[in-house]
Amino acid sequence: MGLNALWVMLAAILVLLMQGGFILLESGSTRMKNAGHVAGKTIFTLGLASLVYWAVGYGLAFGGEASDALNKFIGLGNFFFTPDIASVDNGLPNSVFFVFQLAFAAVSLSIAWGGFAERAKLSSYLIFTLIFVSVIYPVVAHWIWGGGWLAADGAQDFAGSTVVHLTGAIGALAATILLKPRIGRFNKDGSANVILGHNQVYTALSVLLLWVGWFGFNAGSTIAIGDGFFGFVAFNTQLGAAAGAVAAMLISWLVNGKADITAMLNGALAGLVAITASCAFVDPWAAVVIGLVAGVLVFFSAKFFEKIKVDDPIFALSVHGAAGIWGTLANGLFATEELSAKVGVGQAGLFQGGGWGQLWVQFESVAVCGAFAFAASFIVLWVVKKAIGFRVTEEQEIIGLDLSEHGSYGYPEQMKKAGTNA
């Protein structure tokens, strides 16, 4: 147990460090007048999420006894969690398991912030963190990972294409619908204006940090190192990410006549998101296929959301939503009988001789978890909008959230030269 605990603790640290990747991704993809706000609210909400998950979220996700009838739908126990050195969860000291799961919850929350970008009040971040980490995310996590009803059905989501990524993306979707587009994003005739991020090097560095952190995400979810299976999971993870990056770059080059760097970066992340559900269930060739499809899908998904006038500054809906759905469904096509038996979840997919059963379970998990996350997120944010206001004023948005919400700029010297629209 000692080496396994060390491995998972190191994996948890890698996943927590992904928050640095999200800071660089969101700040680089938006304007410099909001960069300090992005960094500050990410650290603030990580701290708040940690306390909320300790008090309530972990208990709803993983509390309760498997024999309890209510446990099919929600966990009840381990509130204000106190680790017991002698206690073991999933073969690990329960303190290590808690930190690992907390890191996952924090990633899902950071994904949701993509829908808030450049126009939401800081108070709305606070309220949404409280509800998302205490109720919305834990319910989905319990259904699939905590012994809930989807787990009983055999839903395959090894490291969270649905639990982490789709849930966060759906929160972002609810937010961006209620907030409406940023000032200047779309013209009255419906045509779109490109609002460029201020630092593409930041976004590239963010993808590299997230890519490395993903090995903690996926390989760490094996919870053990003795049989070397974590290496197989890491192998598939790398193939999925690589295929996604290459596919997105090539399709952008073919369609636009230019090799779009942003599209490539989104493709790498989409490949990672898609392979997250299936990295332990599929053969390497299938990991490549999953990544290739994710890279193409994220490119056209981004164009689709722009066409219907949904403002998605960080591409959360395409990278984590569309690719999360695809990655989850892909298990229903490519999961092998041998690997499903090794993980102990579900059965072979359609293309591996398993019939339609697993594909249906995967579709069921996407539909139900997505619907719950959207309904809950939309209701919470609608109440926020009506009660205290969700969006900053037009003047505050033009000035930038650095100054309007925090009283200082992330780039004070540059902002003096550039003016408030930078």
UniProtKB/TrEMBL annotation:
It is found in: Cell membrane; Membrane. Pfam families: Ammonium_transp. One of its GO terms (biological process) is ammonium homeostasis. GO terms for molecular function: ammonium channel activity. Residues 6-411 form the Ammonium transporter AmtB-like domain. SUPFAM superfamilies: Ammonium transporter. The keyword RNA-binding does not apply. One of its GO terms (cellular component) is plasma membrane. The keyword Transport applies. Its main location: membrane. It is a multi-pass membrane protein. Keywords: Ammonia transport, Membrane, Transmembrane, Transmembrane helix, Transport. It comes from the Bacteria. InterPro entries: Ammonium/urea_transptr (IPR029020), Ammonium_transpt (IPR001905), Ammonium_transpt_CS (IPR018047), NH4_transpt_AmtB-like_dom (IPR024041). The chain crosses the membrane at residues 6-26, 38-56, 95-113, 125-146, 158-179, 200-217, 229-254, 261-278, 284-302, 314-334, 365-384. NCBIfam families: amt (TIGR00836). Belongs to the ammonia transporter channel (TC 1.A.11.2) family. This is Ammonium transporter. It comes from Cohnella terricola.
